[in-house]
Amino acid sequence: MRRLSRLSSIGLALATLALFATPASAQESEQVKIIFERPIPNVEGKSMVTAIVSYPPGGKSAAHHHAPSAFIYAYVLSGSIRSKVGNEPVKVYKAGESFYEEPGSHHTVSENASAKEPASLMAVFVVDSKHTALTIPDKK
Questions:
Q1: Which helix (H) or strand (E) holds 81?
Q2: Are 71 and 103 in contact (CB under 8 A)?
Q3: What are the pLDDT digits (tens) for 63-118?
Q4: How many CB atoms lie within 10 A of CB 20?
Q5: How far apart are CA 129 and CA 86, in angstroms?
Q6: Cα dihedral sign for 92, 135, 52, 19?
Q7: What strand order describes the sheet that includes 31-39?
Q8: How far is CA 123 from CA 34, 92, 98, 120, 140, in A?
Q9: Most-buried pick from 12, 48, 121, 129 (CB within 10 A)?
């Protein structure tokens, strides 16, 4: 029961933080939908959370970090996503391509590479169950 409560908190925290991490214009903001949350049974203290991030044409996320323990695998489902993580160069990932973020990475660019077509990705977080704030926007 305690685990279910903690997982609900993770989903709520991610959804809430996604609202704060988006630009002021609702037309340009991404939408985040949690599709899976569960403690990893054979890895004590770790959880897996999966989200679908959808970007409208020209949509983007604010620069951000994730929970310090979060290892993230991202798979582009549709369209093209422009991304810059850490000191790596900006790269465009197309549907069917993937990338990852190491724990503590700084994600400075995360946006739809198209001004005309929508784009989406699936993000899989492996994170300490105690880290309920999965996305932390940069302070302006």
A1: strand 80-85
A2: yes
A3: 999 999 999 999 999 999 999 999 999 999 999 999 999 998 999 999 999 999 99
A4: 11
A5: 24
A6: negative
A7: 31-39, 46-55, 119-128, 71-78, 98-101
A8: 9, 16, 10, 10, 25
A9: 121
What residue has token string 């503590």?
Answer: 104
Please give the helix or strand (H or E) that residue 17 lies within, else none: helix 2-20
The predicted-structure confidence for 9-63, as pLDDT tens digits, reads as follows 454 444 444 433 444 444 578 999 999 999 999 999 999 999 999 999 999 999 9
- Cα separations (Å) of 88 from 95, 107, 111? 20, 10, 16
Beta-bridged to residue 53, according to DSSP, are 32, 121
Q: How many CB atoms lie within 10 A of CB 112?
A: 24
The count of residues in the chain is 140
